[in-house]
Design a protein that fits this description.
single chain, alpha/beta, Nucleotidyltransferase, domain 5, 3 domains, 14 helices, 8% strand, elongated
Length: 385
């Protein structure tokens, strides 16, 4: 007679040691030759006992090991060639599931983001992990209250970034005298971006960039108060409070605009423009900088890239192109997305065109204004510096 007091439930044994639990079940069955009694001893279902005995009779002790639960037939499984395309796109671009899905769908290969996720997980392709300094994400804007083309983040990007571009690419760019500085302004409501370039990193060029945007917006019928948010670099006025107050009082206020600086060391306050610079590297400078034959072609490609970013490229955060987002709020001319991509150094000798006659400095402001005058440089962007 089998001693039942020694045995516990099959479930408890299985949780501790699956192979040991099945061997004990087989041992009781071999002694009793009764499947129902064995199921009663181990407090489990008769189907479980039948399954274990059948595998033991067919495969021996190998049959007592865990079998894979993967179905033998998967009619809805992603084809291998599609999986290969997904993995190749991930290796080439490093994009996430949404952008990989959009890229493949644009090529005529409809793939859902969930499918991309399952394929990457199945092949254990880990995502790029970048540790953030900031443990808590903060929201700095009330997007419901903001109007389109009202608040811009402005920043300066150095194109010759050795951590991003290869040494050969940088040498090629320098050989054809491509401007080393990119001036970027992005509207945080719609993600519309305006670009310009320069050979010099000066306050004059920074001021010219913002004033050019202002006059461009006014020409397009945008009359609402405009805010430019920058860091504390000297090219945007530096840390001087007096200088910032002078700029707002004498230059920006008459144009219904305002310049503000973010706190020192708070680069996350300009997160939108900082992130857009990574897109510039990945989708413009890395693939196209080597193709430029001269500066004129570079400016043409930069203008086209600005047009693609604003009108053709779908933004992941807003799920629309910036132009589609802008048109969802108000009707504006379509060519507002074609901001003139210029060399800001060419505006050096024409500072007065930015200032109406009624705000020309007088008296005590003359010395301060002279400090802000543009240096005269290059006559055309196609000439070498």
């Amino acid at each position: 007679m089998v001693d039942l007091s020694f045995y516990t439930s099959y479930k408890e044994l299985y949780q501790q040691a699956p192979l040991f639990a099945r061997k004990k079940l087989i041992k009781v069955y071999q002694e009793t030759k009764n499947k129902s009694f064995t199921a009663k001893v181990f407090q489990t279902h008769l189907c479980v006992v039948r399954k274990i005995i059948r595998r033991f009779e067919q495969e021996g002790e190998e049959g007592l090991k865990d079998h894979p639960r993967r179905p033998k037939h998967s009619p809805h499984k992603t084809p291998l060639h599609i999986e290969g395309m997904i993995l190749a796109e991930r290796k080439k671009t490093g994009y996430g599931r949404d952008r990989i899905s959009r890229n493949l769908t644009a090529r005529g290969i409809p793939v859902k983001p969930s499918t991309v996720r399952y394929v990457l997980r199945r092949y254990q392709v880990s995502a790029k992990y970048k540790r953030s300094r900031y443990r808590k994400k903060q929201r700095f804007y009330d997007f419901e209250e903001l109007h389109p083309l009202e608040h811009f983040e402005v920043d300066l990007k150095e194109i010759y970034d050795q951590s991003t571009l290869s040494e050969e690419t940088i040498q090629h760019a320098q050989s054809i005298h491509i401007p080393p500085y990119q001036w970027t302004a992005i509207d945080i409501k719609t993600r519309i971006r305006f670009l310009s370039y320069s050979y010099e990193k000066t306050f004059s060029n920074g001021l010219a960039f913002m004033l050019t945007i202002l006059y461009f917006l006014r020409m397009m019928g945008i009359q609402r108060q405009t805010t430019f948010q920058t860091d504390n670099g000297e090219e945007f006025g530096g840390k001087s409070v007096d200088k910032l107050q002078y700029l707002n009082r004498q230059i920006f206020a008459p144009l219904r605009a305002k310049l503000i600086h973010i706190p020192k060391g708070k680069k996350e306050w300009n997160a939108f423009v900082e992130r857009s610079h990574q897109t510039d590297d990945n989708e413009f400078y890395i693939p196209q900088l080597d193709l430029c034959q001269d500066v004129k072609e570079f400016f043409w490609r930069a203008m086209r890239w600005q047009w693609v970013y604003n009108t053709k490229r779908r933004h992941s955060a807003i799920q629309l192109t910036p132009m589609e987002k802008l048109l969802s709020y108000r009707k504006v001319p379509k060519y507002i997305a074609i901001f003139p991509v210029t060399n800001l150094d060419t505006l050096g000798g024409n500072m007065d065109i930015f200032f109406p006659k009624n705000i020309q400095p007088t008296g005590a402001d003359v010395l301060t204004y002279d400090h802000f005058r543009f240096p005269a440089h290059h006559s055309s962007f196609i000439h070498n510096p």
